[in-house]
Amino acid sequence: PFRIEDFKRELIENIKKTVGDKQVVCGVSGGVDSTVLAVLLNEAGVNVRAIFVDQGLMRKNEAEEVKNNFHRLGVEIEAIDASKLFLDALAGEPDPEKKRVIIGNLFIDVFWDTVGNAEMLAQGTLYPDVIESASNDKSKASKIKTHHNRVDRILELQKQGKVLEPLAELFKDEVRELGHSLGIPDDILNRHPFPGPGLAVRCPGEITLERLNVIRDCDAIFINALKEHGWYDKVWQAYAGLIPVKTVGVKGDERSYEWATNLRAVISEDAMTADWVELPPSLLREVSNKILNEVSGINRVLYDISTKPPASIEWE
Ligand code: XMP
């Protein structure tokens, strides 16, 4: 059986040995993997610089939450607000792959501009990521979307032996176990996965601040309701996205002509396949009413009942 305490001790010893007195940088997103990584490095007592790039594509109040969470964990982070850069770079671009490339490249640029000259880089790569990038040429999944965690500069560092990936032997549930044994609270460890390109993949077509804010409001209402009714921990991932198509409705006494939001909640083992969740109609009704009453810009709420495949979890 997987003995977490022994494994942790070994990991920490290895990190100390490999890093020595060099400075190691890591990117943090607030997600489980990078959080466990940063806390682990901190625990190993090495000289660590944890950088959080806010690309302006986070959920409602998320940047603040991430900062608070690290504060709670006693890990110092450098937060870079790059939202304007990202929104400017994305302006007017409707193509999903081009959006991903813009976000991926800019993220790397902002990160490395902040870092300057890294002595070492630590990444929260997990075992499934290792498998996926090892079979990069063959794997269809990796071709369907452009993932941006292994671009040239990192490959270069890797060749020089300057990349540390302490979680590379672990599956997700083992990372959570490790996080638990590092004293990371459950509300952080049980966060749903959130994609690197953030809300961009939940906003088909052009990205604008207005669209992002509508998504943020709908999503916050949905996620809070899931938490309140005990569904958050039962689903693997959930969100509200935007369908930027205007349809006619009535709000108050007036004709409305507004966008639709799609609610999505799925269960999955490994994100390769997923099934939609049969949420109680009363819960969906509550969320829908709240969104229709409170979010201006939305006059229609849809629930996504598509399995993956053939759909994907995100919309782009
Ligand atoms: P799809 O939409 O491909 O998503 O069914 C599968 C899982 O992967 C997440 N996802 C990403 N995560 N960078 C990430 O770190 C990405 O570019 C990315 N694209 C999708 C998605 O949220 C889901 O959990």
TrEMBL record:
GO terms for cellular component: cytosol. Residues 2-191 form the GMPS ATP-PPase domain. Keywords: ATP-binding, Glutamine amidotransferase, GMP biosynthesis, Ligase, Nucleotide-binding, Purine biosynthesis. Coiled coil: none annotated. It comes from the Bacteria. The keyword ATP-binding applies. ATP binds at S29, G30, G31, V32, D33, S34, T35. One of its GO terms (molecular function) is ATP binding. Its EC number is 6.3.5.2. Pathway: Purine metabolism; GMP biosynthesis; GMP from XMP (L-Gln route): step 1/1. Catalyzes the synthesis of GMP from XMP. This is GMP synthase (glutamine-hydrolyzing). The chain holds residues 192 to 507 of 507 of the full protein.
